Amino acid sequence: MSAVALAVTHSTPRLAPDAAQAAVVVLGTGLVGGALLRLLEETAADVAPLRLLGVANSRHSLFDPAGLASADLLPRLEDSASCDLDAVAAVLKSSELPLRIVIDATPAQAVAQRHARWLAQGIHVVTANKIAQGSRLADWHEVQRARRHGDTRYGDSATVGAGLPALSSLRRLCRSGDRLLALDGVLSGSLSFLFNRYDGSQPFSALLHEARERGYTEPDPRADLSGADVARKLLILARVAGVELEESEVEVEGLVPPHLAALDSKAFQARLGEIDTYVERRFREARSQGKVLRYLASLDVSGRARVGLRAVDADHPCAALRGADNLFAFTTTRYRERPLVVVGPGAGADVTAQGLLADTLEILGNR
Predict the structure, then answer these.
(1) 3-state SS, residue 48
(2) Whether residue 233 lies in the annotated active site
(3) Which positions fall inside the Homoserine dehydrogenase catalytic domain (predicted)?
(4) Cα–Cα separations (whole angstroms), residue 121 to 3, 54, 67
(5) 19 pLDDT band (50/70/90 cuts)?
(6) How high is the pLDDT of residue 2?
(7) Residues in CB range of 291: below 8 A, 6 or more apart
(8) Average pLDDT, the chain
(9) What is the pLDDT of residues 51-104, one digit of tens each?
(10) Cα 90 from Cα 106, distance rounded (Å)
(11) DSSP string of 85-153?
């Protein structure tokens, strides 16, 4: 498949000199949230208009209307009060700064359920959390209504492709009157890494352990292996393109059989060998046909959406991916013969944090 390709690298975002100031609360201090806090500290000279008023994780929250000093921030958080999501809007509204922004670096449903409320209250939301837009269609519409009602922005580029401009590219196409005919690609950095590396010489579970150590997977890798995360990303892309799919309309082929999905995390880890056997069999079947395995997502003009493991020819664009790269191939009415392809790193705390910061600075630069 020939294509017009856009390869993406990352650099530190820069802020326009006349950008407005903003009060910020960061939710999540795990791999992505921790990387974001470090990035904010490292680029303080470039993002001086950002005043950090709060940090929270699932256990604790720390708020100060006057602003939080970056020194010893996480140790102070661990000694602070229990997490209070109700205090997020209160501390932001107490600020005299013209812009108020919540940055959600969590995978938590309880936080995602607050997005629409914050947007309607005039608080901008920047997020890597896919749940609000990638689950029920009703939740997607609630976010869009709240955004319009509150005259706020929803920075969601990190929900699909980490820091890659996948959503922004698709939105630009649609705004200019183009129409999506098909989407194909690798939407998961963790699954990309696993199948780019797997060659049958070591167990799949060994690579899975490496991916987890690199921060590519969730703590419980079933979140990645189930295909649910990829399905959410595909739903977000489809809905941005005007294809209003429900969760149940995405055909999902996961890599975790039901009897393993029902186990607790420790018991699941002890039985990873069962997934090893399945992946090895699929790999050998593909190799016997001169093909390679990739975990792909696809959407066609009829609205059929699928995610799952597929054997592709060696000249398929996804066959040449390396590391944790994502690839998005957009076939549209104007890119019918040669799809527009966005490709680049699609996993990792640093690139995701970079995407969150870039969305935050875009809000500041456009107000």
Answers:
(1) coil
(2) yes
(3) 165-361
(4) 43, 18, 21
(5) low
(6) 45
(7) 311, 312, 313, 314
(8) 91
(9) 999 999 999 999 999 999 877 899 999 989 899 999 999 999 999 999 999 999
(10) 20
(11) THHHHHHHHT--SSEEEEEE----HHHHTTHHHHHHTT-EEEE---HHHHS-HHHHHHHHHHHHHHT--
Is 78 exposed, middle or buried (CB count within 10 Å of its CB: 0-12, 13-18, 19+)?
exposed
Q: What are phi and psi of 202, to 5 degrees?
A: -145, 160
Considering 93, 130, 233, 266, which one is annotated as catalytic?
A: 233
Which residues, including other chains, have CB under 8 Å from residue 152's CB and lie 6 or more apart?
118, 119, 120, 122, 123, 124, 125, 146
Sequence-ordered strand ranges (E) for 139-290: 154-155, 180-186, 250-252
Please say if the pLDDT value at position 331 is more than 90.
yes
- Tokens linked to 3: 């294509």
Give pLDDT tens digits for 187-230.
999 999 999 999 999 999 999 989 988 888 877 888 889 999 99
CA dist list (Å): 361 to 14, 121, 145, 285, 330: 8, 20, 23, 48, 27
Write down the pLDDT at residue 45. Answer: 64
Structure tokens at 324: 């944790």
Question: Would you state the structure tokens that stand for residue 74, as one six-digit string?
Answer: 């996480």
Q: Outline where 157-219 has alpha helix (H).
A: 166-175, 189-197, 204-213
CA–CA distances in Å: residue 304 to residues 191, 232, 254, 299: 22, 15, 17, 6
Query: What is this structure's pTM?
Result: 0.91
Which amino acid is residue 191, in one-letter code? L
